[in-house]
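Q: My labmate handed me this sequence with no annotations at all. I'd like to see what the chain might look like in three dimensions before we decide whether it's worth expressing. Could you predict it?
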Amino acid sequence: MRLRPTPRGWTLAAIGAFIMLAGIAMGSVELARIGAVPVILVAAAAAFVAWRDPGTGRRALAVRRVLTPNPVHAGERLQVEVEIRSTDPSSRARLAGLRFAEQAATELSAGRPLRARVQRAPGVVTVTYGVDAARRGRWPLGPLVVTRSDVFATVAATTTLGEQAEVTVWPTVVALPAPNDVLVGEPDRVALGARSPSTDDSSLRDYREGDDLRRVHWRSSARRGELLVRSDERAGMRPVSVLVDLPPRPTHLEWSISLVASVALAMLDAGHPVRLLDGVGAHLRPVGVPYLHTRHDGARAALLDATVDLESPRGSTEALARVVAATHLLEHAEAGGEIVIGVLGPLGPGARAALTHVAEAAQGWAMVRSDPAHPSEERDAEHTVRALRRAGWRACTVTPGEPLVDCWLRLLGTAR
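A: Here is what I predict for the chain of 416 residues:
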């Protein structure tokens, strides 16, 4: 708690102290007593305000904060509701006269004061306001700052109520088409290299346009009166690894992560098991990175959560090490026959050599960043695309900042 006199309190205390010192200097006891009254008044007000601190004691106020939605995508608006409630009838008086303010990270408030609406009812105060999630990350919100003063407004006390909340901001994503006839691969084979599943070990879902008719469960479809297909991840949907090579330039980072997230979600929504490989901490995961499946609750959220903490490499050496580490994970036994979709930057000879062997066991697709503002990077991007194509990849160049759908369609070959 921070306790301080208000300007009125400082003025009263200063006048009282002056009169008291003048009375002592003149030997007037009455004058000194008169001067002591304002000083004692301010001191008593400070003691009273401290005693009525709403954040301490058995009668402390309870705070509940609701964030809707949380997590939220970058560029979207988040609604916040803070409810301050008295814990018993005797603590209701603590709500009277309180002034409220909320603390928020700059990425949520843009450095501007938050404009809130305050609603009061017996024993409860509700503060509601909205914030704009400007950038991907995990940003603090709160705690609530309350200010209280005495009846004469001579002393003010500032304290915090409740816990600090965390707002998770996912990257901006765009819906991308996922043509099953191009990416599914071999429908009769098991995606992870095991035997084809029987009906007993598969779950069923409604038929979607583009689903292979060989996955239709005819007995259940006849019983229900509509087409049902096996939805297990091993029913011909090849696993997808999204290879992430982040740019060291901050201006291109968020665009690249949005492209990564959009591609991964498109593959997940199409029924493919999906995982992200950025090469960070690969030595801690010798058994490989697990896939996320659409039949698992929270798969989309888990995939987006994996993009929140992605960071740029500190230099070209670290970037190369990440690509090589991610490539080593692709050499795991389960990687055979999968689809590898790379969002890459211009690669040096070492990274290109590491990716050369990927196409021997997997279907490789790559979008390589090319910045026209930097001719050397543009040349390196063209060299990377040619090297990947010679190794069996399907690759194209993309320009940071262009529409993500255009990049994706160019890779699929439906737009040039």
